[in-house]
Amino acid sequence: MAEYDLILKALAEQYPEHFVTIVRGPGAEVEKIERLEKEAVATQRTLDILLKVTESGYEYVLLIEIQTRPDKTMPLRLLEYTAMHHRTHKKPVYPVLINLTGQGYREECYTYECLDITVINFNYRQFNLSEMNGREFIHAAPVGLLPLVPLMRHSDPPQEVLEACSKRFEREVSSDQDRANLFLGLAVISSLKLSKEIILKVIEVSKMENSPLFDGIREEWEDKGKVKGIIFAILKTLEKKIGKKPDKFFESRLGAIDNEDTIEKLFYVAIEAESIEQFTKALEKVEQERTGY
Question: Is the pTM of this model over 0.85?
Fold first, then answer.
């Protein structure tokens, strides 16, 4: 599991009411929030945040799916998860998709027809952080959401945004461990957009070390470094075979794979492949296995 998935799950478990706020707004009359056990559904994915919410006397399941980059298959997958949790928990489900980077499918729905009937008309809520006003969140959002703020739209320099979030942690969070979790979350999630050099100018490693997640995150970053090295070797191998450097889109497809074993297998395919087309077929197979389609 990528490091941002790990930290987002931890923050949602620590501050579930804050994640309800980003979806339903600060004015929602929420009386009760319960975390639902992941084991309730055998195929529950680690990216899901699943909460049972009572709002104005109405009880429902809030399903939040967070993805680092838009995926065209996500609406169909979200439909599958929604139906699965509705069947399991016997409650209405409110499905939400949060895109940490980029923009998702604009319609916020998935529809298809067969002959003379509309078989599915599925609606969900979608939030693209890159379109949200970060300045409003810096000053008014609950602290549990502040690690998401650097990915939002800003007119201020990134370093100032990080400093503003950090000051709120120092001022409002009394527990050393909770504060360390938030600093770690801010650093990890910011790395989707900002360089580590900028992040470490503001967030010292010592501010994150008290988090129980720190060692696991550090291992994730070390593994990611290994994966990047193998991807570089794949690109060089293919460049030698075809006589030119693969394009940026091809490189980004490889970069989306964060599993070391998988990327190693692709490296051996690159060595043995007789053409770029042969390697591309293997890459497409990996992509299909990752998305389930």
Answer: no
Tally of CB atoms within 10 A around 202: 21
Backbone φ and ψ of 41, nearest 5°? -125, 125
CB 161 within 8 A of CB 150: yes
The three-class DSSP label of residue 119 is strand
* Contacting residues for 22 by C-beta, under 8 A, at least 6 apart: 98, 127, 141, 145, 148
Q: CA–CA separation, 13 vs 15, rounded Å?
A: 6
- Distance (Å, rounded) from C-alpha 207 to C-alpha 176? 9
Kindly report the backbone phi and psi dihedral angles of residue 112, in degrees, each rounded to the nearest multiple of 5, phi listed first. -150, 155
CB count within 10 Å of CB 160 equals 13
Mapped onto helix, strand or coil, the DSSP state of residue 27 is coil
pLDDT tens by residue, 167-179: 999 999 999 999 9
Helix (H, G, I), strand (E, B) or coil at 72: coil
Question: CA distances (Å), 225 to each of 79, 231, 260, in order?
Answer: 34, 10, 10
Q: How many CB atoms lie within 10 A of CB 217?
A: 20
The domain limits of the chain are: 3-131, 134-212, 220-291
- Reported as a single tens digit per residue, the pLDDT across 109-157 is 999 999 999 999 999 999 999 999 999 899 889 999 999 999 999 999 9
Residues in the chain, overall count: 293
